[in-house]
C-alpha cells in the first residue's frame, strides 16, 4: 500500500533493521524498543487487522514467532516474552498493517501493567459466551 510505513520498510524505501525476510513475512526491530530485542513480525501482504489475514499468512506469522522466540531469549538473556498483537486504534494499534510484537521480558521488570482484571459472575460468562457463539454461527 502506497503510504503505509511498514509497506515502505518492506519495499526498502525507508530503513528497517531486519533479522528475517521470506516470501510471506519480514521481521525487523521496533524503532521504539519496549525492551531490548523487541521485534515486529509483519506480513508482506497489506491488511490492517489479524482477522483479515488468510489462514496461511496468519499461520506463518504465528510460526515465525515460535521459531524466533528462542533466539531472542538466547540473545537477550530474557526470562520470558510477550507476543502482542494490536487490532484497531481502540486496542492501541498505531500502524494499520498487521504485525506481531515479540517483546523480551525479565523477572520483575515491571514493564507492563497488562489488561485490567475483573472477576465476572458465571451468569455473565454464560451470557457472553452465548452472544459470541450466536454471532459466530451467523458469519
Ligand atoms: P502498534 O501500536 O501495534 O501498531 O505498533 C506499531 C509499532 O511500530 C510501534 O511499536 C512503533 O514503535 C513501531 N514503528 C513505527 N515506525 C517504525 C519504523 N519506522 N521502524 C520500526 N518500527 C516502527
Key terms:
about 140 residues, alpha+beta, HIT family, subunit A, 3 helices, 5 strands, globular, binds adenosine monophosphate
Number of domains: 1
Sheet/helix structural class = alpha+beta
**Total helical segments:** 3
CATH architecture: 2-Layer Sandwich
Residue share in helix? 25-40%
The profile of the biggest β sheet is: 5 strands, antiparallel
By DSSP, the count of extended strands is 5
**Strand line-up in the sheet with most strands:** 1-2-3-5-4
Low-confidence stretches: none
The separation of the N and C termini measures 28 Å
The distinct bound ligands, ions and cofactors come out as: adenosine monophosphate
Name the beta content range.
15-25%
According to CATH, what is the topology?
HIT family, subunit A
Characterize the structure shown.
This protein is an alpha+beta fold. It has a single domain, classed as HIT family, subunit A, CATH 3.30.428.10. Helix content is 32%, strand content 19%. It has a five-stranded antiparallel beta sheet with strand order 1-2-3-5-4, covered by helices on one side. It is globular and about 50 Å long. The relative contact order is 0.16. The model has no long low-confidence stretch (mean pLDDT 94). The site of adenosine monophosphate has 11 residues, from loops.
